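Below is how a single chain appears once it has passed through the pipeline. First comes the sequence as given, then the structure the pipeline wrote out for it. We keep one example in the README because the format questions we get most often are answered faster by looking than by reading.
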Amino acid sequence: MAKGEFDERVCALIALGQTGAAATMVVRELGPEIRGSLSAVLGVSDADEVFSGWSVRLWRSLAGFEGRCSIRTWSHVLARREIARFRKGMRRHAEGRVPISELQDVLEVTRSSAGASSATAERRRLMALRDELRLEDRTLLILRVDRNLAWDEIAVAFAEAPGAFNQEDRKRESARLRKRFQLVKRRLIARARARDPISRAGGARSGPPQPGA
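Resulting structure:
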């Protein structure tokens, strides 16, 4: 289903007061993506619990949805808020999978280690490095890398009051998050180099690779 058509159908159901049917449509269309994002941040077992909370929040919020962002973006906004609620009572940090597609510059560093001689080993190293990041930074990686959200959509997802965001706010916040994304990748590179005996001995090439946008 095309993005515009999907949003139109959901909004049409909302306008008719059929928020239950609208919520069902959103869960069927975007549920797998949202569950995947939650699993990447929290791990599978905790993601199931948070996904249930997200579904309820979605159903309750759709009656007041004004269409200032896409349904997909709004779904990620709600997911991020539900993660925050969950973590307030969370007693442990669950492991998750690591995004790789836009982290080639970090991979270059992990490949310099004698212990990272296979794709599986590289993924394990990236996972260990990523799991040391703050939740905000891990979420930023997941939304940009795994979910391929545009920067203005990520800006809305991170906003405390996304409905109040105007175009200038989105532009400013998008620029800030792009810079933060680069800083996160540089932090990963620095940590990988610090743990690489070849780099510490001066055997690796000098200077970190320049991260891409």
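The chain has ten helices and no strands.

See the next section for the split statistics.
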